[in-house]
Every structure is written in C-alpha cells, then in structure tokens.
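Forum > Structural Biology > Help requests

Title: Can anyone predict the 3D structure of NAD(P)-dependent oxidoreductase?

Hi all, first post here. I have the sequence for NAD(P)-dependent oxidoreductase but no way to get a structure on my laptop. I'd be grateful if someone could post the structure tokens.
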Amino acid sequence: MPLRVVVAGATGVVGKTLLPLLRERGHHVTALARRVDRLEGPTVDEVVAADLLDPDALRIQLRRAAPDVVIDETSAFSAADPQEALRRTAKLRERGTKNLLDAAVSAGARRFIAQGMTAAYRPHGHDVLDEDSPLWIDAPGSWGEMVRALASAEEELFTRSGIEGVSLRYGALYGPDTQYAPGGDVHARVVGSELPLVGDGVGLTSFTHVEDAAGVILEVLEGGDPGAFNVVDNEPAEASEWLPAYARLADAPAPVTLTTEQAKSQLDWLTVHQLTEQRGATNFRLRETLGWKPTWPSWREGFASMFGLWPS
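Reply #1:
Sure, ran it for you. Structure tokens for NAD(P)-dependent oxidoreductase below:
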C-alpha cells in the first residue's frame, strides 16, 4: 500500500539511494533538506526546507506533509574535521532527532525510522555483538558525547507513545559517495599510507553497503516490530584482513604496521580504537524477524564492485 513518507537527510549517502526506491514502490515522498536546491531530478514528490534544530518549522512542515512514516537519515559525518563531525552529529541526535520525533507525533505519523550505528557498542573481548549489547555511553571524548546522544535519542524513540520507533544500526557505510569510495577520506588515507595496521590488527568492523542500508528501510516501513536492528553484512572483518584487501583493490601501497604505542602517538584515539578493539555486530535478529538477506553479504564483493572489479 502506498504511504506518505518524509525523508530527513535526503541528500546523504543513504538518502540519495533511498529516494528513487521509495518512488519505485509508489510511495509519496517528501524530502526534508536544509536547502531545497541540493536535490535534483524527479526522485521526490516534494522538497521542503527545514532545519532539524528549528522545532517550530519542523512541526509546520510535517503537518503539511501529513506523513505515515518519517525517516531520519541525517548526520554530520561529512564534515572535514573528525572532531567537529562527531560534535555536530551528537547535536543532531540529541536535539534534531528529538525535534523531528516530536513533529512526527504531532503530524500523526505511525512509524519513525532512525539511523543508529553498530560502532557505538561497548567493546567486549572478541565477541560479535547483538542488539542487546550495551552502547558505550562512558566512552571518552567526542566519541562518548556522540554515543550518549545516540543512546538518549533511541530511548526517546522506543518509549514515545503514539508512534512506533525503529533504529537501524548500520555498520561502516561504504559504496558510492562514501568515505570508502574513490576520492573519499578512507580511500585518501589508504592511498597516502596514512591508515596503518596497529599491533595484531584485531579490531573488528562490520560493513554495510548503502544499497543494503536503503533496502532495509523499505522492509521496515510497515513490517517488523519496533526496536533496534543491526544492518550489517554477514562477515565482520579484522583490520588485518580488510585493510590490506582494500589497499590491493585501490592499487595503493600495502599498509605499514605500527605498535600500539606508536599508533597512539601518531593517530587520533578513535582510529586506534577502531583498528585494535572495536567489535563487529551480528545481523541475526533482522534475518530471523524479517527474513532479510543483504544484497552484499560480504564486504569482499562489495569493495570489488565499488572499484569496478566485480560483475554488475
């Protein structure tokens, strides 16, 4: 059944992939952006300008749109400075998502779909983590600030009466226009030999292709229970595995190896954490409850496709 859908963050990497898929399913799509000129082409029915930090404007626009479902795909991870990106994303989660949720309830929406992340889980040994694992709310620095804001937004989402809340916890997003694509930040760091292996390289990353991130949204527009779901591929990978493979596909130099002590003196805290102690996540809940299977079940084929080395 066609739905009226509002997409915030429509110009982001997931939003741009999602919009044409919603239209193909026959849904009425309203894109919410800070500037209406940032969207081009016949991918939406309507574009409205609104800032998630302006609750009054949001409420007016959503009442006009009268959505059945509101989707929040906003983030600030495109900011050039990593610390600023974390701070701005924390602000969006802490205030923007809650403002959008308030406006959605006021407009009579039935379901709210938010963006989460598996990287926010508290590391625990060598475990691959599920949705019942705790978020790392006492993590240090700007990362901890961002995780606390995400946890607060999810709590609000899951407890708000009058609307069903779903949080899709993505892994490391890759694919067109992401940090892993040619020209992206990760690509530049690998090509420039600026992203090393650290110690044994046992930090685990779960990856999510943007096509799978967008595809899951289609599945949960109406179906499935409210709550949190990990949206990741089937193969969490240690840094010692995915980083050299990525370098080969990118025709870049093999990554150098640093000791943990060397890395801590040369790299930012978050990068060291990701390469040494971050944990991956399981997609078992999503597979069991919705029968979902990722289009890209392994980052290996997904990376190869991203570099034009996999059959279309």
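The domain at 4-177+207-232+280-296 is CATH 3.40.50.720 (Rossmann fold). The first helix runs from residue 13 to 24.
Shout if anything looks off.
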